Amino acid sequence: MILITEDQSAEIVTPELAFAAMREAFIAAVSPSAAIFPVVLGHGSDPQNRFTVKSAAGAELAGLKVGAYFPTNDDRGLPRHASTILLIDQSTGRISALVEGSAANCYRTAAADEVATDALARSDAEVLTLFGTGHQAAYEARAISRIRNLARVLVVGRDAGRTSDFVAKLRQSGLPAKAEDAETAVRAADIIVTVTTATAPLFKEEWVQPGTHISSMGSDATGKQELPPALFTQARLFCDLPEQSLRIGEFQHAADAQLTAIGSVLNGNARGRERDRDITIFDSSGISLQDLHMAQAILSHFTESDKNQC
Amino acid sequence: MILITEDQSAEIVTPELAFAAMREAFIAAVSPSAAIFPVVLGHGSDPQNRFTVKSAAGAELAGLKVGAYFPTNDDRGLPRHASTILLIDQSTGRISALVEGSAANCYRTAAADEVATDALARSDAEVLTLFGTGHQAAYEARAISRIRNLARVLVVGRDAGRTSDFVAKLRQSGLPAKAEDAETAVRAADIIVTVTTATAPLFKEEWVQPGTHISSMGSDATGKQELPPALFTQARLFCDLPEQSLRIGEFQHAADAQLTAIGSVLNGNARGRERDRDITIFDSSGISLQDLHMAQAILSHFTESDKNQC
């Protein structure tokens, strides 16, 4: 089996690699052979330290991701999150590769947003409104800036000091960012990305202008909520995996929502945005096939001599 | 992280190592901090190739086993089963070790039987009756021969040719084996071990003599069954994990069974066999803590210089 360490995967991963992998993953998710298996919610010896196991199979790949969330790491300055992906050799059943992918995981999630937004947002979109000022939010802003010429990035945060620091960080990386209040930012937005742990809507539906695209990146568990449900009846609704999105994603708050898998838009079997004035919503609850395709893409970028062949 | 390959783990594992690890695992399973998480039943791109993910946490260890079952391997002479264990570092959340343990898995299951039988069978037991002639059955016979002086090993199989081959194999390894019919073998038994994929009782309850110990090793899924349920009201009932044993183990066929976790016998909190004439039954449905303790024991036996430190 092949082991790719965190240092190796962090060095090889790029936004371009992640974009291509997410596109493949979304298309794989709508293939007839795709299967997503139930998520395990585990914990460590100290029950506040948690881990999840998310597994899936597609036409070419099968395997799983172990995602750890260890808040006790704070005490020692270590990151709370750690992601490890295992690929199962489809010809023998043995583990063919282990990819440590904590840094890669940030690119993965941002690239999922990027692929969906690229497919759904107006081509002339130039104002990005970002809810959230955490670690992942910066990846999202940079990802969207790759696919649209952004004139402004409006950042809405709960804490003024954190928001100011975050805006400064985005500006340093070349993005035209500024802090803004929620109503002004939503009314001005062509694209809204929410990257929060919210459990109630972050803005009001009447602020959203025709033609806006919204990506909800934060809702991946029961009780989480970022968007006003009244918006769902006026908008066209997309997601990574409809059954999961309705159960634990943003659309858990939508009764009878008609959801389209983004993979069906990407492979040409469903329509994305049809008119400039459409409001489109993409909900990312995160699926294991994304991890498997990230791992496969990282593996493919290693030459044989780089591999720790064991 | 540390990688232990299949060749390395197969070289280090011994019946003694497995026995000590299973004893630790059973005791860990009854500690207040033990948690067994739901089993994932997954499959590969070809749905006939299946895998399971079994995860758990104890006072010291947390992690998971990926167990693959690939019948398509038959075509190329590869083993159907492959087991890989991941340990999660309890101080950081990162994967601390990956142990390929397909060979080790056979020792693990046999040692579970051995630990329970050692605790529950009469000390003068000398006749072992074995139902099953598969790969695992040979491990079970050798394991029981380590803890009791066996005068006879009576083998009951469905196919005369296979049974004869299996008996010859046991005899070659020094065991006093012979083929026998079910009734004769059960009536003569001090210890009965069932290692089959049966879905109906393998023998009649009235054949079982007072003082017999029975280990059911084969029932680990809904619909599997090896023992006559009428026996349960006359016997004292033990298992690895009561809630799992009642759900998918042999005791799925027992209404209102009073089960004792074998770990509680091993740590002195519950009684095992009380009288020579007791009939005792141990059901092994298999728990992830066994795998984690096997992996930890294998790791402990490697010196630092042997490790593939990455």
What is the gist of this entry?
Chain A has nine helices and 16 strands. The first copy, chain A, has 310 residues and is of the alpha/beta class.
Give the topology, please.
Two copies of one chain form a homodimer.
Chain A lengths: L1 E3 L1 H7 L2 H15 L5 E2 L3 E4 L6 E8 L4 E8 L11 E8 L6 E6 L1 H19 L6 E5 L3 H13 L4 E5 L3 H13 L4 E3 L2 H7 L2 E4 L18 E4 L19 E4 L2 H7 L10 E3 H5 L13 E4 L4 H14 L6 E2 L1
Parallel strand pairs in A: 1-7, 8-9, 8-11, 9-10, 11-12, 12-15, 13-14, 13-15
Antiparallel strand pairs in A: 1-16, 2-4, 3-4, 4-5, 5-6, 6-7
Model description:
2 copies of one chain form a homodimer. Chain A is built from 9 helices and 16 strands. In chain A, the strands form 2 sheets. In chain A, strands 1, 2, 3, 4, 5, 6, 7 and 16 form an 8-stranded mixed sheet that branches. Chain A has an 8-stranded parallel sheet with strand order 10-9-8-11-12-15-13-14, with helices on both faces. The mean pLDDT of chain A is 95. In chain A, strand 8, helix 4 and strand 9 form a beta-alpha-beta unit. Chain A folds into 2 domains: 125 residues, ornithine cyclodeaminase, domain 1 (2-Layer Sandwich); 176 residues, Rossmann fold (3-Layer(aba) Sandwich). The first copy, chain A, starts with a strand and ends with a strand. The longest helix of chain A has 19 residues. The first copy, chain A, has 310 residues and is an alpha/beta fold. In chain A, helix 2 packs across helix 3 and helix 2 packs across helix 9. At the A-B interface, strand 3, strand 4, strand 5, strand 6 and strand 7 of A face strand 3, strand 4, strand 5, strand 6 and strand 7 of B.
